[in-house]
Amino acid sequence: MTDNQRRIPLYLQIKRKLIDRIHNGDLSPGDPIPSESQLMQQYNVSRTTVRQTIRDLANDGIVETRRGAASRVKEEPQEDLHNPGIVHHELGTGFSVKVLRSQFMKEHSFAKKELELREKEQVYLLERIRLADGYPIGLQQLFAPVYISDMLTEKENEWFDIFPVLGMHGINYSTIKESVTAIIANRDEADLLGITSGDPLIEINRVTLGEDQNPIEYSKTKYLPSAFNYRIEVGRKY
């Protein structure tokens, strides 16, 4: 493995290899990709790494995932497909979530503005602690229009990332807009994350647009700096 490869997360390395197989004709649209167990054995990586690979492929519209069925190639990637410019992910293994709140609200005007909802409309809020190996690494508030809520409330205490869930229901994103801010934890956040009030946190604000360019989710996630990797990569092809 070269020094350059060591700097690239394992899930991206595997993703590039699978994309190469699609370009080479080893895998065609409609073909199943290797199972999680096969990929784990072939590349000697954890199930978490394999699932991150499949999530990324699904988010890019390259594979299609269905519950209880093999993931299949959806379409051939464009030759000029690039890294979106930013690579970030939680650090650790054994990812899970703990639901704090799951409800419909008429408040949260800022979230409704980001989702382009009318003031009288309700917005769905899912607030969860994100954990790695049972330890808190982040606190997330995720807002969505009411029509999205049924997709999210099903097993809301099990799924970790929203995009594979939406993808299974035929909803794919076209654009993701994120901003990153350094903040300090207030007393409630500190208690939930097991830190001291005033400790630093990384806040990621994200708005996701669907294929019709309408917002489908807005989230605010506050991470422990030690549990999050954020890196910019510009102009690198898969």
From TrEMBL:
Q: In the UniProt record, does the keyword Transmembrane occur? A: no
Q: Tell me where the signal peptide lies.
A: none
Going by the UniProt record, its keywords in alphabetical order are: DNA-binding, Transcription, Transcription regulation
Coiled-coil region list: none
The record, for Pfam families, names: GntR (PF00392), UTRA (PF07702)
Checking SUPFAM superfamilies in the record gives: Chorismate lyase-like (SSF64288), Winged helix' DNA-binding domain (SSF46785)
**Every HTH gntR-type domain range:** 8-76
- Entry keyword Transcription regulation: yes
Return the protein name: GntR family transcriptional regulator
**From which organism does this entry originate?**
Alkalibacillus salilacus
